[in-house]
Design goal:
The complex is a heterotrimer.
Chain A: E1 2-8, E2 12-19, E3 22-30, H1 35-50, E4 59-63, E5 75-76, H2 79-90, E6 96-100, E7 105-110, E8 116-121, H3 130-139, H4 144-150, H5 165-177, H6 182-204, E9 210-213, H7 220-230, E10 235-236, H8 244-251
Parallel strand pairs in A: 1-4, 4-5, 6-9, 9-10
Antiparallel strand pairs in A: 1-2, 2-3, 6-7, 7-8
Helix pairs in contact in A: 2-8, 3-5, 3-6, 6-7
Chain B: H1 14-30, E1 37-41, H2 48-51, E2 57-61, H3 62-71, H4 73-85, H5 94-104, E3 119-124, H6 129-140, E4 145-149, H7 160-181, H8 187-210, H9 220-233, H10 237-255, E5 266-271, H11 280-286, E6 290-295, H12 296-300, E7 305-307, E8 313-315, H13 319-322, H14 329-341, H15 352-365, E9 370-376, H16 380-383, H17 386-395, E10 400-405, H18 415-428
Parallel strand pairs in B: 1-2, 1-3, 3-4, 5-6, 5-9, 9-10
Antiparallel strand pairs in B: 7-8
Helix pairs in contact in B: 1-9, 3-5, 4-5, 5-6, 7-14, 8-10, 8-14, 15-17
Chain C: H1 2-10, H2 12-23, E1 27-30, H3 37-42, E2 46-49, H4 70-80, E3 89-93, H5 97-109, E4 114-118, H6 129-148, H7 154-177, H8 187-196, H9 202-215, E5 226-232, H10 238-246, E6 249-255, H11 260-263, H12 273-283, H13 297-307, E7 312-318, H14 322-337, E8 342-347, H15 353-367
The chains are: A alpha/beta, B alpha/beta, C alpha/beta.
């Protein structure tokens, strides 16, 4: 039995192919302007990798913001359901998933079988999402990867007052002018984002273990802030966190 | 504008104000140890009413308590986050989020666990007031709560029916209090408390009036530390006595030419509560020789005023000054309700133009050069109508500056930009 | 048939202007549903609720500080844009602070011959509120009489009460049909009906509503969808409810001031007519701003959930609405205890339909998780 999951995101499109619920292939493409075409391309690349023909696929489930564009899908499910389903497959001990994409942060509490127990999504505000990290890195004139690492080298805790992207940017600039160490500023920023996310996680209820997926999962500074804020020692991160949603879709009953 | 340099000196009675404040928080925390009663309510509540239950009855007022938390940035952030984690929105009244945070974390800002009150006695004019404590009950278990609706329209339109409504509720409140505490109510103690409260709030208005003098003997930042006593326990004899002492000292400062700041070149007032974590805004003003001599907030939140014979604004005459002695409970409560309903800071709730009129009067009588409005995201009640207030002041030809912030949630305040705005405003007043 | 209500909703101003021309009567805009409409109606006035238009606008910024709710700004925008230029008067029955500003700014910037602030009590749970409001209604009645230069007679008030009660009974009848497992009308259709009752002459509304109810026999639009309740603040957002019902969901009841809270209880006729009206407004399902010390809304919501066999709740609030924000976590908890999952949505003047659709879909999936496994 062959199933395919397609996660058509704002930035990238991911495909996971399962044979009897085992991953046989996955593929990631940049989402072009023509979403339908991107979906088509990502699927055929993934099938090629697995040496499978299109006819061999029993069913296809789409997720992600552009899921409506996947006209050949047999079913569509939301990112929330897909994340929960995918994470339990990858990390069966996870009960809370934090997914931080470019413009949206989510906290999902799941049951052991991958069903969604409760979830929260941040409001229309970039302060709890990946774009905030990028904006702040830019204000500090360091690249995003270095920005995450330097947070770990901070020796002082300073508080960021502002938590709105615009306010925070001007505050960062003032801190730079005041000759505050970039490491300390980086940590303060990560703490500020983490605190927004943590409030959201606490709303659905913290239940260990906690997994983080989405682009920000690869930022060690953020993960460190999250651990300190939640007062936990362990945070699970799948090897390839970006495929969690597509995997969850592929696991869904058509 | 003059270039005179005035003498300045710290207030002699400053230490006493600090002591009174700390003693208040201690009294509340320790009330139960001595078999007393603890109750909670807002800074505007009719706190003379519970005084009839005895001398060992101590309150915790929410706003100044929350402001104390907001002043401690680290604690404040923890409190705010604790509240958000429980699902309450970030834009709810910032005072009560600090207060709830302290309850949720079970951490009293003055040390030890949070001392739970025996009952809640609140008043309601802002949409949040009664709701604050409804949530407190939700968090702390069913604490008995009584709340008085005072939203009966502006004082100049007060009539018998409206006064009956407020008086009636206060009378009900007394009966309710007897029931929940099991104590017998003492009307004599009530009368004393009302006399003292009238003295406190009238003398405070007198102190504020002394700031009409040039140079101003007090600046607003200092006044915050003084007016706060009335937000804690305005019916307290010790507060009324202290204000009389303070008034005499301020008079003496004027006589000796003592000013709040050395170079008074520009006189201002502000509006709404300041961002408590950032009182350095006032220090920044001083760099330009600008002094805030008060605000409608600091004058009218706990000061009770009336028009004087010469048409100027001054302290309302107390029952003692009018030769009124209360003969029975209802008469006292009715007077007390009327006294509070004349509170300047309650008028703008019905119409922003009432605030404009009061500010125009302050502008003139306190000899101001401009007004700074704090668009305060933390307080719906004092920010209500503030945009129309701005337009009204501009129309009256008064220079106005606005800045956005939050009295109790520093995450909504941009220090750099605010200072830049002040710089521009000072420039426009030719002070640069 | 629903098209008549839809047409009223979409052309509310044309309706009011036409009504004015036809009857030579005055139209008064009110801002909050605590307005004692019976008294105005008895005087031959058409009371219309001032609502927003759900369009982005840039006219209110100088008048209302951005921390206040989008709804109060949208309402004021309608006045500033001249859409209500036919109003002879405006009135506010003391509401939340947010909406109060629409009224005060209107009074300052768009003067009309009659403007009245009625200090409706907030302390509706105090027994003292009845007599107080009764007296306020008397003062209001006198002000209306003075403005119009005519007396409002007892029989006028009786007639107004009768027509208003009739409307409430009919709306109840309409809502009750939605308790059935075969729901004969969508939530959107119900919204058109209740909202327009705040816009058109009640006598006319009654007539249409009676006919409309008769067309619903044997109709069933349920289509195996999840039964939802909408709980919260002002909501006349047709786009949003339409989107929700395009998914496998049907809104079977609401707890909004634009919906059930508006019409839920009747005036109990009494010789002291003003006291009867006062009691009606004091005893109605409360707005959260007036719902204290006890949170009586909870019982109302619990009853609706039970009576309408609700499976999930969407908790809706205008952005920055403190009174609703105080209640939301408490309501959420209560519903959870009843086994009813809920999802919070914050409304702005316009809502991001795409984003909200994703959220509602995820919520509905959570309710129907079995279908994914």
């Amino acid at each position: 039995m062959i199933s395919a999951g397609i996660d058509l995101g704002a930035k990238t499109t991911k495909v996971v192919i399962l044979a009897d619920n085992k991953i046989v292939s996955q593929c990631l493409e940049l989402t072009g302007i023509d979403q339908a075409q991107t979906a088509e391309k990502a699927l055929s690349n993934a099938l090629e990798k697995a040496n499978l023909s299109r006819d061999a696929v029993n069913f296809i489930v789409a997720t992600g913001v552009g899921r409506n564009a996947v006209s050949f899908a047999n079913k569509e499910i939301s990112d929330v359901a897909a994340d929960a389903r995918g994470i339990i497959y990858l990390l069966p001990d996870a009960r809370t998933v934090i997914d931080i994409g470019a413009e949206e942060g989510r906290a999902i509490k799941c049951f052991a079988d991958g069903r969604v127990q409760d979830f929260a999504i941040n409001e229309k505000c970039a302060a709890g999402a990946g774009t905030f990290v990028e904006t702040m890195a830019r204000a500090l004139e360091v690249d995003v990867e270095e920005f995450g690492k330097m947070s770990l080298r901070s020796t002082n805790t300073i508080a960021m007052n502002a938590q709105c992207t615009v306010f925070a940017e001007s505050e960062v600039v003032s801190l730079v002018h005041a000759k505050t160490a970039k490491e300390d500023i980086s940590k303060a920023i990560h703490d500020a984002i983490a605190s927004r996310i943590i409030s959201m996680v606490r709303r659905v209820g913290v239940e260990e273990k906690i997994a983080v997926i989405g682009g920000v999962a690869k930022n060690p500074g953020f993960i460190d802030s999250l651990k300190r804020g939640l007062e936990i020692n362990e945070i699970l991160i799948p090897d390839e966190p970006e495929f969690t949603g597509a995997l969850g879709a592929a696991l869904t009953k058509a | 504008m003059s270039n005179t340099v005035y003498k300045t000196e710290p207030l002699k009675s400053w230490e006493k104000a600090k002591e009174l404040r700390l003693q208040y928080y201690k009294n509340y925390a320790e009330a139960k140890d001595k078999g007393g009663i603890r109750w909670a309510g807002g800074a505007w509540t009719f706190d003379a009413i519970p005084a009839g239950l005895g001398n060992d009855v101590h309150s915790l007022t929410s706003e100044p308590y929350a402001a104390s938390i907001a002043f401690n940035k680290e604690l404040s952030l923890k409190c705010l986050e604790a509240v958000e984690s429980k699902g309450w929105a970030r834009d709810i009244c910032a005072y009560i989020r600090n207060y709830w945070g302290s309850v949720i974390r079970n951490e009293y800002a003055f040390g030890g666990p949070f001392p739970v009150p025996d009952f809640i006695f609140q008043d309601h004019i802002c949409c949040s007031h009664a709701k604050w404590y409804q949530v407190v009950r939700h968090l702390e278990g069913d604490i008995p709560m009584f709340c008085v609706d005072i939203s009966v329209g502006p004082y100049h339109e007060l009539n018998d029916s409206r006064l009956d409504y407020v008086t009636g509720q206060l009378m009900d409140g007394i009966e309710w209090m007897e029931k929940v505490t099991g104590r017998t109510y003492n009307d004599e103690k009530l009368f004393e408390a009302i006399y003292d409260e009238c003295r406190t709030t009238s003398v405070w208005a007198e102190v504020c009036c002394l700031n009409k003098h040039v140079p101003a003997p007090l600046d607003e930042k200092t006044m915050y530390s003084l007016y706060v006593l009335a937000t804690l326990n305005k019916h307290g004899k010790e507060i009324a006595d202290y204000y009389e002492e303070l008034r005499d000292e301020v008079k003496d400062r004027i006589a000796r030419g003592i000013a709040a700041i050395p170079e008074e070149k520009c006189r201002l007032i502000t509006d709404t509560q300041p961002p408590w974590g950032f009182l350095n805004v006032y220090r920044h003003l001083e760099k330009y020789g600008a002094v805030s001599v008060g605000s409608l907030y600091v004058f009218g939140l706990e000061g009770i005023w009336e028009e004087q014979e010469d048409g100027s604004w001054g302290p309302r005459r107390t029952p003692q000054q009018l030769g009124i002695t209360f003969k029975n409970r209802e008469e006292a409560v009715r007077f007390y309700a009327d006294w509070n309903l004349s509170k300047p800071q309650w008028q703008h709730f019905y119409d922003p133009m009432l605030k404009v009129e009061m500010m125009k009067r302050i502008y003139k009588e306190w000899k101001l050069n401009g007004i700074i409005l704090h668009y305060n995201r933390g307080c719906e009640g004092l920010s209500v109508g503030i945009a129309e207030t701005r337009l009204g002041l501009i129309k009256a030809g008064i220079p106005v500056m606005t800045y956005e912030g939050n009295m109790g949630d520093e995450r909504e305040f941009d220090e750099t930009k605010t200072f830049a705005r002040i710089d521009a405003f000072m420039e426009s007043l030719s002070l640069k | 048939m629903i098209d008549i209500f839809k047409d009223w909703y979409e052309h509310r101003h044309d309706y009011a202007k036409e009504w004015k021309k036809r009857t030579k009567g005055e139209v008064v805009g009110y801002f909050c549903t605590y307005a004692p409409e019976e008294i105005m109606y008895a005087a031959g006035i058409l009371p219309v609720r001032i609502l927003g238009s759900h369009e982005p606008q840039d006219v209110t910024e100088p008048h209302i500080f951005g921390m206040f709710c989008p709804f109060c700004r949208d309402c004021l925008a309608q006045g500033l844009k001249g859409r209500f230029d036919y109003l002879g008067g405006i009135m506010l029955s003391q509401s939340c602070l947010h909406l109060r500003q629409s009224y005060t700014s209107w009074q300052i910037n768009i003067p009309v011959p009659f403007s009245y602030y009625l200090p409706m009590p907030h302390g509706v749970q105090s027994k003292r509120a009845y007599k107080y409001l009764r007296n306020e209604l008397e003062t209001f009645k006198k002000a209306v009489e003075k403005w119009l230069g005519k007396e409002i007679k007892d029989e006028d008030i009786d007639r107004a009460i009768e027509i208003y009660n009739k409307n409430r009974q009919l709306l109840h009848k309409l809502y009750a049909l939605r308790k059935s497992s075969k729901v004969p009308l969508s939530g959107m259709e119900a919204m058109y009906v209740t909202i327009t009752s705040q816009m058109v002459d009640k006598a006319e509304h009654n007539e249409m509503l009676e006919k409309y109810i008769n067309t619903l026999t044997d109709r069933d639009v349920t289509n195996d969808r999840v039964r939802l309740i909408f709980v919260g603040s002002e909501d006349d957002d047709i786009e949003f409810i339409k989107m929700v019902e395009s998914l496998p969901a049907i809104v079977v009841v609401d707890e909004h001031c634009t919906g059930s809270r508006y019409f839920w209880n009747e005036v109990k006729q009494d010789d002291d007519r003003l006291m009867a009206i006062a009691a009606r407004y004091i005893d109605r399902p409360a707005c959260p701003a007036k719902d204290w010390p006890e949170l009586t809304r909870l019982d109302h919501i619990v009853n609706l959930v039970k009576d309408y066999n609700v499976q999930g709740a969407v908790l809706i609030q205008q952005k920055f609405c403190d009174p609703h924000e105080f209640d939301m976590p408490v309501i959420e908890k209560k519903l959870k205890e009843m086994g009813i999952p809920s999802y919070n949505i914050e409304f702005d003047v316009t809502v991001p339909i795409g984003q909200f659709k994703i959220r509602i879909e995820a919520f509905l999936e959570m309710l129907r998780a079995d279908e994914l496994f």
